[in-house]
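Hey L., structure's done. Input below.
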Amino acid sequence: MDASLRLLLLAFVLCVPIGLGATWIAGSTMIRGRPSAVTSAERPAQDVAIETRDGLLIAGTFRPGRTDRSPAVLLLHGLGASRSATAPNAAWLAGLGYATLTIDFRGHGQSAMAARSFGLNEAMDARAALAWLKHRQHGGHVGVIGISLGGAASLIGVDGPIPADALVLQAVYPDIRRAIRNRIADRLGKGPAYLLEPLLSFQAPIRFGVSPSGLSPLEALARYAGPVLVIGGMQDRSTLPEETRSMFEAVQGKRELWLVADGDHGAICALADVPYRSHVEAFMRQTIGPPD
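Output:
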């Protein structure tokens, strides 16, 4: 065998395990829980702790509505954030008269530290929070605003979509493979994205016990029958506009689509301006009812 060919084969043999090891380390970094500081609630708001089905304590902040039977809104943050990110909109909704609850997902904020799972296990946090808020408001209607990870957690848990009375899905990825591919492509280009994405996506069976197809909000959305407002961004390169449209098309019940002209993924997740609040308020009034 030619010496140069032997060197090439040797380099290949060495690079494969090194590449697999590097992507495994990258995956471990992506899912590692990280705490962060959250400002304590000020009255009439109150900080609460909610236990999930698997025994974890989830930190939250409750803001009372106009009455203890007012409709309520559960706000779920994105990956790497905390309830601090949803606090401004929660305070605004409470000012309208809706009761609100913001939480820190497991592995975020002040909640129990656990591996992040792109919505799969976080779904237990969302369900526990919804049940807590529903009970607190004596069975009143509850809408959910799920931002990126929060929207995925509203849909892909083992029990199916969350039993909310209405959903706002904001910058929510259609499936984990496209989510990872888009983020790599945004930083390194399409070629590396198509090469590296499978090495990360197909860690899911080992880490979470499900195939990548089990981490698909798009597929799960078809099983939710309630009204849905889908929000995305025309400039979002993490959740592309055509992916947001596919989420909208998957809605089985009453549906509304709003594509924001400007702003990257982070900006779409952080929307709190007048147009955003006008859309959300109108949707909540039409679906879960006015706050009074």
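The two ends are 82 Å apart (CA to CA). The chain has eleven helices and eight strands.

-- N.
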